[in-house]
């Protein structure tokens, strides 16, 4: 591009950067910034701290079987960081990555050099060997749940179907339970038909049916995780022609869902919040990053009506995590912080105390001698 053309483009950008807009309140000046250290997910810094101090993020990166041969290829942190930010945003397609490429705060907090494009993410996941990728993600899925399974949790799940279409690997012409249809010649006659819906309940308790019904209504620990994963997360999305990347995406969404759900229970132990309410409350706010004298500051501007409650909850989680790190830094290996998180959740949610050593360190984290 010649010098004259560059000046013309710069002049156009300056004109666009501060243009008058007529509104009901009068004329206002709208200024555009092509590059700014800002993000719509400002409160995500606290979740990033959770991943960092528990070691979940570093272990996920270290175990990733993705390799590149070119020095110009993106780093593993760039690929996995883009993937995680996209999943946390509730995306369902690789093309949705375009909506987070202008994030000027969170990629830096994850030590990413950039948010990669949708094509780079697709190609990167294709380079992960199928067997190694499955083993890698299954191991982290096990880690995200194993330490919690000695507590009595309520399991509420329904069967789910992932429909394959067209030229996708594994697609066949078959019955699709999601697309029920029939031809009825006499529509009025169909309305006269009466019938029943049957539900089968398998249980090892000896309660009466009315008591079981009440227990079912009170199951509230998790109101069907599959429903939330399908409708509020990208489970079943990130579709490609090959089945391998579809399976990787399903596992990755489940893993990020586990991490986020446990983080939310630390912030809000009184009740479980699905992503449709937890994201706007504990993730979404305008964040601006400034740097001065070697100090990085992220300034948050709340948009949520309950921003004050988030302002109280998230620093409390941060203090809890830092207290555990301070007490375990010279005594136990890094995974112990994650175990303390799990012990804390079991204690406050299920009334189960952890091992004596973990319980003592948990007391220190709470400021109890």
UniProtKB/TrEMBL annotation:
Q: Where is the Transposase IS4-like domain?
A: 191-259
Q: What is this protein called?
A: Transposase
Which one of the record's GO molecular function terms can you name? transposase activity
Under InterPro entries, the record lists: Transposase_11 (IPR002559)
- Give the domain of life: Bacteria
Q: Name one Pfam family in it.
A: DDE_Tnp_1
- One biological process term in Gene Ontology: DNA transposition
